[in-house]
Amino acid sequence: MKKKILIAVSSLLSFVLFALIIYLFVILIGNYAIDNEKLVMKATTSLTDQNGEVLTHLFIENREPVSIQEIPKHVQDAFVVIEDVRFREHQGVDFRAIGRALYRDILAGAKVEGGSTITQQLAKNVFLTNEKTWLRKTKEVLIAMNLERRYSKDQLLEKYLNSIYFGHGAYGIQAASTLYFNKDVADLSIEEGALLAGLPKAPNSYSPINNPDRSKERRDLVLTVMQRHEVLEAEEAKRLKGKTVATNVNRFEEKEAFLTYIDMVMDEAESRYHLTQEELLTGGYRIVTPIDLRMQEVTYKKLKENRYFPTENEDAEAAVVLIDAHTGGVIAVQGGRDYVRRGLNRVNVKRQPGSAFKPLAVYAPAIENGRHPYTMLVDELLDYNGYTPRNYSHQYTGYMTMYDALTISANAPAVWLLNDIGIERSLEVLNRFNITIEDRGLAIALGGLTEGITPLQLASSYHVFANEGVRVEPYFIKEIYDRNGKRLDGEPLVEEEVIEPQTAWYMTRMLESVIQNGTGRHGDVQAMVAGKTGTTSFPGVEGAIMDAWFVGYSPDVVGTVWMGYDQTTNERYLHGGSAYPTVLFKDIINELPASLRQTTFQKPTAVTELESPIELPVVTDLKATFSIGGRGISSIHLDWTGPEEERVYYQIYEVNTDGRNHVATVVGDTQYYIGSLNPFTSKRYEIVPYDEITKQPGLPSNIAEVKFKFGLH
After folding, report:
1. Residue 625, SS3?
2. Class of the CATH-defined domain 64-241
3. Is Cytoplasm among this UniProt entry's keywords (predicted)?
4. How far is residue 332 from each of residues 295, 305, 578, 588, measured CA to CA in Å?
């Protein structure tokens, strides 16, 4: 008896030990197979404007994870009864369901029913491949049992409903609800939830889009099973089955108008936030951008219109950038007329800027170094060690103001001024604009660069003029939030003063003149605009144009338009110049809402207004007379004809054999008295008008000898 008891106890202990080993094996193998990172579902990243309107979605799997609390109970019940009615009772494997499935398979002589639980399906979807082997099935069971140990039933159901595929690219219950019914999962009705519950078995076959009849049959089956398991009353199930399948399909289609912007958002996410493309496509981020959705579409449509391009250039390319003049956020961008995702983005391609470079390389640096918009420049055909810049008109006036030189885009004065201030000073200011060039020749005054400059760089640089001299790095991302709503910190945007506010204001006033009276006068615009044109010639063909530009700004928007070919050849070149991008830019500005079409630029309080130019008089009637009286016992009275303008200073000189000596400066008057007791003096005098604003003298007057005048003055 003792021996039998001992054998029985020993057998029992052996069985327990064997069961314990098996249990530990299940735990170890299951734990080894579970990678918690895989339970973090790939989620769709959304791009929105500042008002929350969606621009696009970025995803590998279109999925928007939701919590179990957001999923109505009748939707949960529909999935449970059709997929795993004993879900809340078993521990990951339903042996009763497996036995029932085997029995029916044997009766049918083929596999007609599956026995996988919801937990097993989750294990298969997340951790395993679709290979049909005993080893894979064993792993599925082991992982399912361990998942049941780690997570509650609600957590498992939530992960399952967020992982399954519903067809047409929709992963997870929320994406499916949006796709088929254009609503959140929380708003699904009973019959809508039943329809979705019927899809995972065969998403394409039961798709209400492709097969509405089969979809209804499958939905009605789910409703029947819900009734059978007392989730629905018979009367309600019958009423719901009588309804037709009513979908409101919201199939996401990426708009071509937004492709450039999307790519530039992704580039900035990597450079400023260090997010890889894969992280963006799977991380479920919410990216807020400064885009203006309407203007993005406006720029896209206008680039498609051939009327904005020269005759015979309907196949020419173009690029557009629009930046918020106040914040630096990019509100619209087009990298080409037929841009494709991750294709050649002409917004970032360097081209020869032509005269659009003059304000940056010459005029702003000159004002920063003490010149004035009305400073006189030499307008002559000059040779600079073999470099002879020519005006487009082939006419030269001898002298003209900086203001006029910029207005009519004269080349000779621009090169003369660059030579006068020095190339190094120009390069120093260009560096402040964040423009670095290798060129060191005077040709940079006319935009003759080795590499060129991009449309985005030009727009960013002109933004300095519009923003009181402060450079703000243009940006495509305002904020990024992760799937938990936490805001991410990216590399800070550069914001620094580049030029004095006074310089920026003078540049604005000068660039306004370009639009009103100069090379930018083409087209009509309903807002105030300041800007500059640019044209570069193609040396292979006489009169051929390689690049045509307009870059400028209104009080609210800064922008650049470039036109040309990716490769200019003897057969492919522009037949027209900067008038075409100028008209296009103005028509784009005209599409801005009325609130963004201000009619005047507002002068900053800390700057001096640019007054109308002074035309210094040429004095030819200076007279000098000696008389008794005047301002003393006797005096020499000088008088002449000229404007009594406070901005015109009259410098009075006494002329002698050794040269001339400065006697006095007269402001706001055309006469002057010099005290003298000698009526027989032989002194001579000369007057030179002087512009106090520009610090430049005019032409000397005639030389007047003192003559005696009888009588009291």
Report:
1. strand
2. mainly alpha
3. no
4. 6, 17, 21, 11
